[in-house]
Amino acid sequence: MAIEVKVPVLAESVAEATLMKWHKKIGANVQRGDSLIDIETDKVTLEVAAPNDGVLAEILKQDGETVTSNEVIARIETGIAKTPPPVEKHPPVKPDAKPEQRNLGMEQAPKKQEPKQSPAVRNLLQQFNLDAAEIKPAAGQERLTKEDVMKHIEQRKVVQPETTAPAPVPPPAPPPKPEPEPEMARKTEKATTPVPQTVHKTTAVPAPAPVAQIAGTRPEQRVTMTRLRKRIAERLLGAQHDNAILTTFNEVNMQPVINLRNRYKEEFEKSHGVKLGFMSFFTRAAVEALKKFPIINASVDGDDIVYHGYYDIGIAVSSPRGLVVPIVRDADTLSFAAIETRIREFGDKARDGKLTIEELTGGTFTITNGGVFGSLLSTPILNPPQSAILGMHKMQDRPVAENGAVVIRPMMYLALSYDHRIIDGREAVQFLVAIKEQLEDPARLLLQI
Q1: Active site residue 303
Q2: Which of 56, 80, 104 is the last residue of a domain?
Q3: Mean pLDDT to the nearest integer, 325-334
Q4: Stretch (H or E) spanning 407
Q5: Which of 63, 131, 424, 441 is catalytic?
Q6: Count of C-beta atoms within a 10 Å radius of residue 377
Q7: Claim to verify: residue 42 and residue 141 sit in the same structural domain
């Protein structure tokens, strides 16, 4: 009986997807739940598993082909009996053989096993045509990460010029019939004295072609954009084309938040099982500021302005496949611990390529933290159809004036990019001031004032 393997149901906003790489070949035995292939959409990477036990009888769509929702890509034959793996025959062992010899006769060469890997890592291996079995995960880890793959690629680049350099060739024995030399070589030989033996060894090796020299010293590699990267490019260009983007800045003294965090972080982690970070403070501060300025939480739909009565906050996360923005839904109803837990879960899923389309869809406002990469100041770009995005940056000790005296405080620049079609500068500036007031006096977050 043939069972069809179909593309999972895609979201309404996702029209098509791309097959990445088949993990099983035709004729391979599969069990229900075995990963057959990864499918890349505009937002996430989906894993297609075998629906039944059987044998992969037919593959209808190959690597790199475009598919749609519910399209049949393979068939599994369930009526075929699984063939047992061939039994290796070992040479008979003599009765008087020593124990060491008997052991040697029965031992099998250990098979090279591939480490565990996420769909994002498999995509990276496919792009650079790498064998996962040749890459060692970090010490104590069973899963292969993007960092392990990139480290392997960098090591290959360092070794490549040495391995491609031609080895020294000894002087060849005189052939019975010398081949005709090029015209230029004959003219040079007639016009000069006999070349010493050491020089003859060097000129006997043919010089590589100019193209080979360029390829060896200035390597280039052309890699097709992933579907996610194409989608990111389209959305960013669309955001700049369709919105009147303007950015306003302010700075906040993070000392009160740092003091509060240092005072309660150990007790917080013991009580809730999650670390107390800065993102929960910024998320709650953004929600309270959005309540005061609903236009920042609105979006444009044609000629209409849509005001949202809920607060779904997108948190920009860097993943091996690119920037993704999972949504913390109903952030106004969540505690600090719940927000931190959601953000940690999103970070783990983004690293392993397991974010779902539902977790990436929607959102009324976005927060992005370039400070984790060392950014001191930037102008974030909108995440359509949202009308505003808050950019956090690196905390840096700077001299500031307090009560007529110069003191050193951990300061952070904040940037708000907004759609000037519906948001005026007054609302944008006051919104940033509201966030600044919340963070410099964290008691406001608890009192919601």
Answers
A1: no
A2: 80
A3: 94
A4: strand 405-419
A5: 424
A6: 14
A7: no
Distance CA 247, CA 425 (A): 9
Distance separating alpha carbons of residues 443 and 315, to the nearest angstrom:
24
**Do 37 and 22 touch, CB atoms closer than 8 A?**
yes
Most confident of 16-20, 192-196, 222-226, 312-316: 312-316
Before 51, cis peptide (omega within 30)? no
* Domain at 36, CATH number: 2.40.50.100
In angstroms, rounded to a whole number, what is the distance separating the alpha carbons of residues 267 and 261? 10
pLDDT at 120: 67
Q: For the chain, how far is it from start to end, CA to CA, in angstroms?
A: 66
pTM for this prediction: 0.60
Catalytic residue among 23, 272, 308, 420: 420
pLDDT at 337: 95
Residue 182 lies in a domain: no
More confident residue, 258 or 202: 258
Specify the pLDDT at position 137. 77
d(CA 126, CA 118): 12
Q: What is the pLDDT of residue 271?
A: 93
Catalytic residue status for 420 = yes
**250-286 pLDDT tens trace:** 999 999 999 999 999 999 999 999 999 999 999 999 9
Residues 410 and 278 in one domain: yes
Structural domain span for residue 246: 228-447
What gap in Å lies between CA 230 and CA 295, rounded to an integer? 30
Which residue from 109, 78, 412, 382 is spatially nearest to 252, judged by alpha carbons? 412
Q: What is the CATH number of the domain that holds 293?
A: 3.30.559.10
Residues 297 and 415 occupy one common structural domain: yes
Two tokens, residue 332: 């106004």
Does 113 reside within a domain?
A: no
Whether 393 is covered by a domain: the verdict is yes
Residue 401, pLDDT score: 94
The answer as to whether 142 is a domain residue is yes
User: Per residue in 119-150, pLDDT tens?
Assistant: 667 777 777 777 777 787 776 666 777 777 77
Give the whole-angstrom CA distance, residue 419 versus residue 245.
5
Taking the CA atoms of residue 312, residue 394, residue 318 and residue 341 in that order, the dihedral angle to the nearest 10 degrees is -50
**Domain end call among 25, 60, 80:** 80
Instruction: Domain count for the chain, please give it.
Output: 3
